[in-house]
Design a protein that fits this description.
- It is found in: Cell membrane.
- GO terms for molecular function: ATP binding; phosphorelay sensor kinase activity.
- It is an enzyme of class 2 (transferase).
- Keywords: ATP-binding, Cell membrane, Coiled coil, Kinase, Membrane, Nucleotide-binding, Phosphoprotein, Transferase, Transmembrane, Transmembrane helix, Two-component regulatory system.
- By secondary structure, this protein is an alpha+beta fold.
- Helices cover 52% and strands 19% of the residues.
- Among the domains are: 117 residues, 2-Layer Sandwich (Beta-Lactamase), CATH 3.30.450.20; 91 residues, Beta-Lactamase (2-Layer Sandwich); 156 residues, Histidine kinase-like ATPase, C-terminal domain (Heat Shock Protein 90, 2-Layer Sandwich), CATH 3.30.565.10.
- Strands 1, 2, 3, 4, 5 and 6 form a six-stranded antiparallel β-sheet that branches.
- The termini are far apart.
Length: 606
């Protein structure tokens, strides 16, 4: 009984893993790590939200004070007097009391400078946004920008100066230094990696601890931007503009298109959780070492036989059937595996001999396949010839049919030939039906002319091919002159021609690239003078057309694609000629191809 128990490999493996206890320890460790990460994430997120609320409220109060200051200044009787000698000491007093104001301007409603505290800093453009807003009676606040002379962050606040009747008689503008308040905004107590910055609606830095990023760098492609504006549903941990995982919170500054962002690196926030993770991994590693010691104790009964079986398998893979034979006197699963492996080796040896006998037959079949493929290409090349030949066959077949029909109506056919006559007529009708089907394929339909707008047919064709372009990540651009004259043509045929050209271009670009469609007037010089035509161009950035293929690309059934029919460009050429136009191309190896569809304009067609 004891011998049977220990000879069972399944029991040995069960004892090994039960003693090592890897599964319970892994479950407990994973649960502990996950719980710690969730608690830390929630705690840090709340802390970041509180900091963002405090900073946004501080900036909002400060901005409200500056707006109130300017409203009071603009509403004073001194500024309403519009007298520079009275305004100058008043403004100087304001600048002395409030250190944040760098420059004051007082302008008339027409933009004439009445007073400038720093006249050496240049003139004023009457079209500036702040002047237009305040001249209309609005209080205006600009975006923060970097003053190149003072090398500090500033912004404009402007307010209207109203007369006794409440009408705008001038504008007061103050250049406000944001350095002091922004230094307080940037200071955050969030470890070594915590930071606070300010961006506008486009994600451009307005305030940042690194001055080189201000008004230059942008977070529009980062997870920070997506979290601020909700363009995507993000987790609490996301990638910031430095491509580093962070936790963050954001708040909009009231009344402004400014967004305050507070973030902290994930690695710093999860430092304690990472330490717990290391402890759990250490415990798991210790357990693995213990399990390895137990496995080593059983190696003589498990590992050695498996190693011998592995060597035999390698010999079998090399075709060394003599050294692939293994034998064992064991009665457990290892012994059963040895027996199964030996049986498999014998079957593989027999099959190897059988395959060697079939190699010659396989090579012969491969040659037949190659000949069949060559024949297929020859038949495709003969398709064009067949289309012309059917026209020559149809006439005599029709004559023969009419002759037999007249014979049937004028001459009495003996019963013994009646069946032969019926078979002959049936075969003639069968040939005629086959010819008609082929001619319907080879013979183009006559165009149904109507007034067509070039932009409309281009956009309709793009609707058809755009899914394929999106699948290939191909950039599609369109350049159509809105003043183009209309053309007279078959809307369906012209649309089919453009779709064929666009699909042909997309198939030339396997991934990405650019498909450009344009329409413009063409003034070609001919012997009869200048010829005005509409030119629709379809360009790609594919490999171009090979030199050996350029004389054949408009031939029916010619194609360089494995699955192509070779009819696309031939159809386009037929449609172009049916409309009195032509199709040409320009191709540069390695740089792409442009197909040019020339069509007569409406006044020339009329």
């Amino acid at each position: 009984m004891k011998s049977t128990f220990f000879n069972n490999l399944r029991i040995k493996l069960m004892l090994l893993f039960l003693l090592s206890a890897l599964a319970p320890l892994s479950i407990v460790g994973a649960f502990s790590i996950r719980t710690a990460e969730e608690l830390i994430t929630e705690m840090v997120s709340n802390q970041l939200k509180n900091v963002a609320d405090d900073k946004a409220a501080l900036l909002d109060r400060w901005m409200s004070e500056r707006k109130s200051d300017l409203n009071v200044i603009a509403g004073s009787s001194i500024l309403r007097s519009m007298e520079p000698e009275r305004i100058a000491p008043y403004i100087q007093l304001v600048r002395n009391n409030y250190k944040v104001y760098k420059r004051f301007l007082v302008l008339s409603r027409d933009g004439e400078i009445i007073f400038d505290s720093d006249p050496g800093n240049g003139g004023i453009n009457a079209q500036e946004e702040w002047l237009e807003h305040s001249a209309n009676g609005d209080l205006y606040t600009s975006n923060i920008f970097l003053d190149p002379e003072a090398s500090e962050s500033v912004f404009y606040v402007s307010a209207p100066i109203l007369d006794e009747r409440g009408e705008v008689k001038g504008v007061a503008r103050a250049t406000v230094s944001a350095g002091a308040i922004l230094s307080q905004i940037l200071k955050v107590s969030l470890g070594q990696t915590g930071e606070c910055y300010l961006v506008d609606r486009q994600g451009t830095f307005l305030v940042h601890k690194d001055p080189r990023r201000i008004l230059r760098d942008n977070i529009a492609q980062s997870g920070s931007f997506k979290k601020i504006f909700g363009t995507e549903r993000l987790k609490k941990i996301y990638t910031d503009y430095r491509n580093i995982e962070v936790l963050g919170a954001s708040r909009q500054v009231a009344g402004e298109d400014w967004y305050l962002v507070v973030e902290q690196d994930r690695d710093e926030a999860f430092r304690e959780a990472d330490r717990l993770t290391r402890y759990v991994y250490l415990a798991i590693v210790s357990s693995v070492i213990g399990a390895a010691l137990l496995a080593w104790l059983l190696s003589s009964s498990v590992a050695n036989p498996i190693r011998a079986l592995s060597n035999a398998a390698e010999n079998l893979a090399r075709g060394d059937f003599e050294n692939a034979v293994v034998a064992s006197k064991r009665t457990d699963e290892i012994g059963m595996l040895y027996g199964a492996f030996g049986s498999m080796a014998k079957q593989l040896e027999a099959r190897q001999h059988s395959l060697e006998e079939k190699v010659d037959l396989t090579e012969a079949e491969l040659k037949k396949t190659e000949l069949a493929a060559a024949r297929s290409h020859q038949l495709a090349a003969l398709g064009q010839l067949a289309a012309g030949v059917t026209h020559e066959i149809r006439t005599p077949i029709a004559s023969l049919k009419l002759f037999l029909q007249s014979v049937e109506s004028e001459i009495e056919i003996s019963p013994e030939y009646e069946e032969d006559f019926r078979v002959a007529m049936g075969q003639i009708k069968r040939i005629e039906a086959t010819i008609n089907r082929f001619l319907d394929f080879a013979r183009p339909q006559e165009p149904i002319f109507s007034t067509v707008n070039a932009r409309d047919i281009i956009e309709e064709a793009l609707l058809v091919v755009r899914p394929k372009a999106n699948q290939q990540e191909t950039v599609v651009s369109i350049d159509v002159n809105g003043e183009l004259p209309a053309i007279r043509g078959d809307r369906k045929q012209l649309g089919e021609a453009l779709v064929n050209l666009m699909v042909n271009s997309l198939e030339a670009m396997t991934q990405r690239g650019e498909l450009k469609v344009s329409a413009q007037m063409d003034h070609s010089q001919t012997a009869d003078g200048t010829r005005k035509r509409l030119l629709i161009s379809v360009s790609d950035t594919g490999p171009g057309i090979g030199e050996s293929d350029r004389d054949k690309i408009f031939d029916p059934f010619f194609t360089t694609k494995a699955s192509g029919t070779g009819l696309g460009l031939s159809i386009v050429q037929t449609i172009a000629r049916g409309h009195g136009g032509e199709i040409t191309y320009l191709s540069t190896s390695g740089r792409g191809t442009t197909f040019q569809l020339f069509l007569p304009i409406l006044d020339m067609q009329g």
